[in-house]
Each structure stands twice: as C-alpha cells, then as structure tokens.
Amino acid sequence: MRTNQIPVPPPGLSPGSSSRTFTVAGQLVTAPKAAPGLYLVATPIGNLGDITLRALETLAGVDIVACEDTRITRRLMERFSISATLMQYHEHNATVARPKILEKLAQGASIALVSDAGTPLISDPGFKLVREVSAAGFNVIALPGPSSVLAALSVAALPTDRFFFEGFLPSRQTARRARLAELARIDATLVIFESGARVQDSLHDLTAVMGDREAAICREMTKLHEEVRRATLAELAAVADDLETRGEFVLVIGPPAADAGMSEDALDELLRTSLTRGSVKDAVSHAVEVSGRPRREIYARALELSKNNPARSGDDAE
C-alpha cells in the first residue's frame, strides 16, 4: 500500500453502501471493513461448503468484487447473503477494466478478485492485474482455498512430490500431439485441464505419445457427480468412448519410468510438426533436446519424414 495516503471510498460508494454482513449456518456475522488493497479470493469449484470463513469475511468487507461473470458470482453472494458491488474483469475487457481497478485502489478502495470457480490466476487472466497492482505499490493479499489442480492431484494416487501443471492442451490434434511429445520428457506428474468435447481425443493422443503410464481422470471435482477413474492410459483410452463427457475434467498422468524413452510415434509427431515450421536442422536440434535420443538416429528419421515434404527435403544438411 502506498504511504501517506488516506483511504476514501471510491466514486459511487459511500461508507454505508454495503451492509458488510454475511450469513453462515443460519447466523448473521458482521465483517470488518477490509483494508485497502487487492484480495485474491478462492471460491468453490463446485461444493459451496468449501468456501472459507476468511473468504466470506473478505467478500463482505471489501468495497468491490471483481469477477469473470457477475451472474455466477452473484449467486455465490446471494447464497451467503452478501451485499456486494460487482464489476466484471475477464480476458475480453481486461485492458479497459485494469486501469479502473488501479484508479479505485489509488483512491483507497479494497477490491476482491474472484474467478468463476477455484483460485484466481490459475488458468486465468488475473496475473497482469496482480503485476500492475504490485508494481504500483498496493497490497496484494492471497486467500487460499479450493483448487481443482490440487484436488485432482490429491486423489489421483500418483506421485505428488513433483508435478507440472499444463492447463489446456491445443485443440488441434497435430499441435496437441507435438505438445504432448514435449511434456513426455518431464520427470514429474502432469496435471492437464480438458473439456468434455475433447477429453476422448486427448486420452487417445496421450496413449499414443506417452505409452502405458498410470493416470487418473477426475471429472466434476467436489460436485454432485464427482467421478475419479484410475488406470493406465491405455486402459482409460480403451473406454474413452464410453465416458460421460458432461462436466469439467482434470487429467493426471504419472511420471515416466526411469528407463522410459520417447516412443517412435511421439518422436515422429514431434518431427513432423517441427518440419512444417522450419528446417531439418532446427527440427533435429529440437527433437534431440526434447527426446534425449542420439542426434544421428533423429537426423536419419527426419530425412525419412522430409521425403514426404518436398519443401523440406534437401535443406540444411547436417
């Protein structure tokens, strides 16, 4: 927070514009006025019972709640009888909304940032706001809570000492397989978001690229129809066409075996994608770095594949 600055209500708000109360377990609770700053408030990803008391107190105590979708956040507020001033902040209006938030913080406002579900900034556009708010000298306070990433990781029954969060994979198969080929070399458990419309295709691609690793499909975490399936990628891909695809998915894939190398299919997919973007030399260098295989072996395979791409054949000989 900037020094020598007297907090005043932002324009459009008066000291009595919010009741600063909330209800929990049928009891009315009075929340103190939140100190000036930006509060990153985690909200439930499904089960409303996962909201924390600190989150409720903060949402009731701030001047403004910045949210992705006011309809979704308003339902949360109504559930706990919170009277709040809502404003939209999402990837489509961020460049316009961000200066307004900074202006209100400069006037002494307290603002909570929430996503539609879970922890803000996780696969979410809020990092630019946090960067600019902190650079301007205002307080940024994190209120930890629900996260589908950690919830899925905790129930997957896979190693948790090291994990890599990928977010959403590319929607097109060629790009998706190329990215999976890069992820396959990471010595950690992988956590991936996926939509119901693409989860079946992604499972088939994961099997083709990563082989028979242990994995888990986590659907609708903390919600009424929560489901967790644990098996190998091959087993999950075999039943992928029978999956219930409604809802939100988190895929958790175990780390590679100590002696596991990149599969032939994965290497070919990686080379094909690289060859469409650049020279044989560049494609080989990238594949060597990602796969860990000998350069001579990869170069021979790249030449073979480039025969089917006249634009690439014969260029940049090693």
Could you walk me through the main structural features you see in this protein, from its secondary elements to its overall organization?
With 318 residues, the chain is α/β, with parallel strands linked by helices. It folds into 3 domains: 21-146, Cobalt-precorrin-4 Transmethylase, domain 1, CATH 3.40.1010.10; 149-253, Methyltransferase, Cobalt-precorrin-4 Transmethylase, Domain 2 (2-Layer Sandwich), CATH 3.30.950.10; 264-306. Helix content is 36%, strand content 19%. It is built from 11 helices and 12 strands. The protein has helices spanning 53-61, 70-79, 94-106, 127-135, 148-155, 173-183, 199-210, 233-238, 264-277, 280-291, 295-306, and strands spanning 21-24, 27-30, 37-41, 64-67, 86-88, 110-113, 140-143, 163-168, 189-195, 214-219, 227-232, 248-253. The strands form 3 sheets. Strands 5-4-6-3-7 form a 5-stranded parallel sheet, with helices on both faces. Strands 8-9-12-10-11 form a 5-stranded mixed sheet. A hairpin with a 7-residue loop joins strand 10 (214-219) and strand 11. The longest helix has 14 residues, at 264-277. The chain is elongated. The N and C termini lie far apart (57 Å). The model is unreliable at 1-17 (pLDDT under 50).
Describe the secondary-structure layout.
Elements: E1 21-24, E2 27-30, E3 37-41, H1 53-61, E4 64-67, H2 70-79, E5 86-88, H3 94-106, E6 110-113, H4 127-135, E7 140-143, H5 148-155, E8 163-168, H6 173-183, E9 189-195, H7 199-210, E10 214-219, E11 227-232, H8 233-238, E12 248-253, H9 264-277, H10 280-291, H11 295-306
Parallel strand pairs: 3-6, 3-7, 4-5, 4-6, 8-9
Antiparallel strand pairs: 1-2, 9-12, 10-11, 10-12
Helix pairs in contact: 6-7, 6-9, 9-10, 9-11, 10-11
